[in-house]
UniProtKB/TrEMBL annotation:
Pfam families: Abhydrolase_1
Full protein name: Putative enol-lactone hydrolase
Gene3D superfamilies, alphabetized: alpha/beta hydrolase
Keywords: Hydrolase
InterPro entries for the chain: AB_hydrolase_1, AB_hydrolase_fold, AB_hydrolase_sf
One Gene Ontology cellular component: membrane
Keyword Repressor in annotation: no
Originating organism: Cladophialophora carrionii
Top-level division of the source organism's lineage: Eukaryota
Lineage of the species this protein comes from: Eukaryota, Fungi, Dikarya, Ascomycota, Pezizomycotina
Domain AB hydrolase-1: from-to ranges: 29-255
Statement: the UniProt record of this protein carries the keyword Transmembrane: no
GO terms assigned for molecular function: hydrolase activity
Length: 283
């Protein structure tokens, strides 16, 4: 299993490269997908065959999740660390393919989508396109952010008190992966350091996005319908697709509907040279 060492913290990732994982010379566009809080890279399993056919698909486990390390220091969990982990993974994968710092298609679900927006904010030149799935962009309002953070703290305490059994009552992308986590303490630290939000910088930056962007949301993902509409309006030129018969795990709830939503967008980015396969996407 491939790991990346990040100052003593091992980060697990997988590369599925154009249908041939061993093809280190592939010029397939880079596609980095990040899972949601308390899920793992396994949530993308059903999409690997389709997404790796024409893309160098990279999936990974955030720190405190799955096969990655679970640092005991709470300060090791943050938006900044997560964005840095994403950059380091792209460096490692792109470097082996003579495409170091080539712009990638960057996306994720829920917290993974938020971190993708945070990644763009810090490294805009490294992003060819954004794929934002079942995600909220954070909060401008301090009171709303405090309520969100109170919920994150309650989540952390639940993991500390009840362990991984908490996952049994969560959505589909979480309920089936409890056995893939080493313990619940890393998830508790991740809730406090990564799920909780410190400021409004990400939501305030939506209007500055200058790459093709697709916002995807499940029709039954009620808490995120308004947030998805907000992002589609605020991100210049963004497109939005609502996937039927799907909740907060759209790619798991309706795998075919998810691919129908994202593949035309991804193929268009690829044809225009996005994701490290040529010039930066301009759709």
């Amino acid at each position: 299993m491939p790991y990346l060492d990040r100052n003593g913290v091992k980060i697990y990732y997988q590369v599925h490269d154009g249908g041939n994982d061993s093809d280190s010379d592939s010029k397939a566009p880079l596609l980095l997908l990040t899972h949601g809080f308390s899920s793992t890279s396994a949530m993308w399993k059903a999409q690997i065959p389709a997404l790796s056919r024409h893309f160098t698909l990279i999936i990974w486990d955030m720190r405190g999740h799955g096969h990655s390390d679970y640092p005991t220091d709470p300060a090791a969990y943050s938006e900044s660390h997560t964005v840095g982990d994403m950059a380091a993974i792209l460096d490692a994968v792109g470097g082996t393919r003579s495409r170091s710092h080539a712009p990638a298609i960057v996306g994720g679900l829920s917290l993974g989508g938020y971190m993708s927006l945070a990644f763009y904010r810090k490294y805009p030149a490294r992003v060819a396109a954004l794929l934002i799935i079942d995600t909220g962009p954070g909060f401008r309002n301090d009171d709303a952010r405090r309520k969100w953070n109170d919920t994150a703290e309650q989540t952390a305490r639940s993991f500390e008190a009840r362990g991984l059994s908490v996952l049994g009552g969560m959505s589909a992308e979480r309920a089936g992966v409890a056995h893939l986590h080493k313990d619940a303490k890393g998830l508790a630290r991740a809730a406090r350091g990564m799920l909780a939000q410190r400021d409004a910088r990400v939501i305030a930056s939506l209007g500055d996005v200058k790459v093709p962007s697709l916002v995807v949301v499940g029709a039954e993902d009620t808490p995120f319908l308004a947030a998805s509409e907000y992002m589609a309006r605020k991100i210049p030129g963004a497109r939005k697709v609502v996937v039927p018969r799907a909740g907060h795990a759209v790619n798991i709830d309706n795998p075919d509907g998810f691919l129908e939503a994202v593949m035309p967008f991804l193929d268009e980015v690829r044809r225009e040279g996005g994701g490290g396969g040529g010039d930066r996407a301009k759709l």
